[in-house]
Write a structure and sequence with these properties.
The protein has 103 residues and is mostly helical. It contains five helices and two strands.
């Protein structure tokens, strides 16, 4: 069996065991207010971190370019409660125009 097959099988088993561990948590623990609050906020924090890394990171450097302007445009459109497609189109158009102007 190749190393890749072993890695896939070990990873699959690890994912299954992690899922099984989540099902084994007692319900009384999950009903605590701080657990519920944390469970609600963790996905938001992870998504924000991923967006930040993708927008201002390039390798080992921090970069402010058209991606940051596109994110700023998306934030403005979200604040004014624009529809989701308008947010995506507006942020993409902002980044595209800035990249076009920057050459």
């Amino acid at each position: 069996m190749s190393g890749l097959c072993v890695a896939v099988l070990v990873g699959s088993a690890g994912c299954y065991l992690l899922k099984l561990a989540g099902l084994a948590v007692p319900g009384s623990l999950l009903e605590r207010p701080w657990v519920r609050r944390t469970a609600d906020l963790v996905p938001v924090a992870l998504l924000a971190a991923l967006v930040a890394v993708q927008v201002v990171g390039e390798g080992q450097r921090l970069v402010l370019d058209a991606r940051a302007a596109g994110l700023a445009a998306a934030v403005v459109l979200l604040v004014v409660r624009a529809p989701f497609l308008a947010v995506v189109a507006g942020s993409a158009a902002t980044a595209a125009v800035l990249r076009l102007l920057a050459g």
